[in-house]
Design goal:
Number of strands: 10
Largest sheet: 5 strands, mixed
Number of domains: 1
CATH class: Alpha Beta
CATH topology: Hypothetical Protein Mth938, Chain: A
Strand order of the largest sheet: 5-4-10-7-9
Radius of gyration: 12 Å
Number of helices: 2
Shape: globular
CATH architecture: 3-Layer(aba) Sandwich
Order of helices and strands: EEEEEEEEHEHE
Length: 113
């Protein structure tokens, strides 16, 4: 699923507009993705991602990179076989679009700070 546009607080995927954090799977979008602690990404926050069959997990940490990814998330990604990419959201969107065109990728995006 290609991302059409990103700007602070807004992401357009397949023509559909989202204004809350979300996870994009290769076959669906999970809107309004909430984390236990908003600016701290933990293993539990990606519970429905871990059993997916994908090659890449791309995390957008926000426009200014405010969301911090815990070490345990990185370890879990390796354990389940994901290549993990963590970038500020603008860069993560570009990376996601490049990768998803050729591979199964999941993107988890923090849309604001």
């Amino acid at each position: 699923m290609k991302i059409d546009h990103y700007e602070f607080g807004r992401l357009v995927v397949g023509g559909q507009e989202f204004h809350h954090d979300l996870i994009i799977f290769y076959d669906r979008v999970r809107p309004q993705w909430w984390r236990v602690e908003g600016h701290r990404l933990q293993v539990i926050d990606l519970e429905d991602v871990w059993q997916e069959k994908a090659e890449f997990l791309i995390i957008g940490t926000g426009a200014y990179g405010a969301m911090k990814v815990e070490k345990e998330v990185k370890e879990k990604a390796l354990q389940v076989g994901f290549q993990l990419i963590v970038q500020p959201t603008r860069e993560a969107v570009k990376t996601y679009n490049q990768i998803e065109a050729q591979s199964k990728a999941i993107g988890a995006f923090h849309l604001t700070c």
